[in-house]
């Protein structure tokens, strides 16, 4: 069995005991008001660095480089600190054509090299219009929050600019890699085995399918694919990167068999067993079964033990996609802490008018719900047509993006109409941020009228 961890250093760091959040404001450094034509929100970046060019007069050679780097350090430090400032927006939204025009001076590729002043100014503009993914009101993706040790590590690695070829080329990083991977295996409970770092979940799944294929057909490495039909089984709520891996590795997307899920998002192991038996009877080789530890939308953990038993019985490789929920394997303490805050959101959603929880027994910190604006609440959810419900989330989302005060994602799931998914993963989150989330979503959506044909 392989277990892959598409877990970024950000997640690993969240597992440590230390709290790495910045105070929401740091004395004298942040939160200076300014206005521009589109917004009168506070903007941190314009305080220390008004929209004028930094003066580089009198700087040459090494002094110039060092002045540039120290200005950039200040800019980045201020940005990272500002991300925790709840009085700022998550995003200063502009439509693509507006932003392209506003940033045309940065986005144009100039025939001449940019000077240092201009580069700094471009960096400032870039940060100004970025989504603040570390902001406590950013819930859009699964990975939220900023980890200053992660930021420092990325900066250190970029400055060292080392190739990880050999010990000769990268002595410190080679030792570091060995120590960290050994420790991670130990935390999972494995005394031996091998591991490697991967830059994300999708590529980890690709490596996982590659391992399974190599175990099954090692000759493919030298002779190429021989045309035998191989299938992968994965739950219908698993991440699309499993199917993508099947496409890339020559297995074929039609050879991915989707196993049914229960309403809580977990794989139905009875269906798995039936499908494996059916494939066997048809003479089809099952290359691999994928178990998802923390599905992307509902955060469900597939029943690993039962799946492992079935795979053992049939001699099939079991791969675990731990990209989202695998971090919980590494820390009992953290699992408990996360449970507290996401359960809080689940409980608030459960009792609040207009909010309809999709799964009550949540495992990973995903809270999914449908939202009904005030005028829609005269009917029970069960009497509202799916095609109508489907349109509410995009309408709320459009308002949300323009306001820039909150970011939450929505999507359909299987046959279910669009639902909101909130991932509670930012270590700086407080309960009042979650209250803010529900209030703000309600403020934005409550005036959406009922459809004319309802
Ligand atoms: C369960 C699962 N697997 C894989 C991935 C892909 O991860 P990445 O975006 O890091 O490639 C995701 C991303 O959300 C995921 O939720």
From TrEMBL:
This protein's UniProt keywords: Decarboxylase, Lyase, Pyridoxal phosphate
CC annotations in GO: cytoplasm
Gene Ontology molecular function: any one: glutamate decarboxylase activity
CC cofactor: pyridoxal 5'-phosphate
Sections of the chain in a coiled coil: none
Similarity-based family: Belongs to the group II decarboxylase family.
Name of this protein: Glutamate decarboxylase 1
Native source species: Plakobranchus ocellatus
Source lineage: Eukaryota, Metazoa, Spiralia, Lophotrochozoa, Mollusca
